[in-house]
Task: inverse folding
């Protein structure tokens, strides 16, 4: 029986929960929130919809009880406000991540960090839990990559799933869209009929600013990251090996060590194992290294 735990049942945690259930990922879903009544209410609400998703038991649990789960999602902490970057959340959410990581020490499954700033919190959970870095995965730029593909699909009048393009680095303002390797059906995007390189800057800015555009309108982003996280869970627990732009502690790619950021990585039942360094232009490499330094500077003193 696949068991998934979700810590934090606010906007994001509840979207992860419903997407996980709809996708048939888990037969047992455990919820936890610092406000127990919220977790209980979410569990009740989700259970009442059980006729409309594959069979699963939904309940609540203490964090320590989730150590035996196949995967645990950390969605706890404060969300962003209009005008804030993800790094503005660091001081408040760092303490939350450390506490949860310590309480998950000895967990047998994979830990997925969703809370922001996801890259730095991923590192803190590794340190606090003592788990192998491969088993603590930040959702990283999976969402940014999905947004880039969505934007390109709109521009090209194609399904987003037909477009292969990646965003790497920080899940935040210093993220890097890899335009040089973006392709469609084996054809480089920059060779696509009618494509204009001059559009790339504006489209990258749209992707980078997507979260703020949504937060200004509805107060939070939740549905897309819920779908991203549920897909990540599904591929992990089913034993698939996918190449995904997740955030994990880096161990030497482009000389980057001792911090977490997103690069294409093989993700499977053992976690985020093999980092695959993509082909990049010199400019893209420099931007990625700048992104690493932004994260390193932000984490000073933690």
Result:
């Amino acid at each position: 029986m696949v068991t998934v735990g979700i810590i934090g049942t606010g906007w994001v945690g509840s979207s992860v929960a419903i997407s996980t259930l709809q996708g048939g990922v888990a037969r047992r879903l455990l919820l936890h929130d610092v406000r127990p009544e919220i977790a209980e209410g979410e569990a009740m609400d989700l259970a009442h919809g059980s006729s409309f998703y594959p069979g699963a038991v939904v309940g609540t649990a203490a964090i320590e009880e989730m150590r035996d789960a196949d995967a645990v999602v950390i969605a706890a902490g404060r969300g962003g406000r209009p005008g804030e970057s993800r790094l503005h959340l660091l001081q408040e959410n760092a303490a939350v991540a450390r506490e949860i990581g310590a309480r998950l020490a000895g967990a047998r499954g994979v830990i997925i960090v969703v809370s922001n700033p996801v890259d730095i919190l991923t590192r803190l959970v590794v340190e606090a839990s003592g788990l192998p870095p491969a088993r603590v995965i930040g959702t990283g730029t999976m969402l940014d990559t999905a947004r880039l593909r969505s934007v390109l699909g709109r521009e090209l009048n194609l399904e987003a799933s037909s477009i292969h393009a990646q965003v790497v680095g920080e899940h935040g303002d210093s993220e890097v869209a890899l335009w040089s390797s973006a392709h469609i059906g084996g054809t480089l995007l920059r060779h696509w009929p009618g494509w204009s390189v001059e559009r790339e800057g504006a489209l990258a800015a749209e992707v980078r600013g997507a979260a703020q555009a949504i937060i200004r309108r509805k107060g939070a982003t939740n549905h897309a990251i819920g779908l991203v996280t549920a897909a990540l869970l599904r591929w992990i627990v089913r034993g698939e090996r996918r190449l995904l732009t997740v955030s994990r502690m880096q161990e030497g790619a482009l000389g980057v060590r001792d911090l977490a950021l997103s690069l294409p990585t093989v993700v499977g039942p053992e976690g985020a194992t093999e980092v695959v360094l993509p082909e990049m232009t010199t400019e893209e490499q420099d931007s990625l290294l700048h992104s690493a330094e932004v994260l390193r500077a932000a984490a000073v003193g933690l």
In short: The chain has a mean pLDDT of 96. The chain has two domains: 3-138, 142-298. Residues 282-298 form the longest helix (17 residues). The chain is about 40% helix and 20% strand.
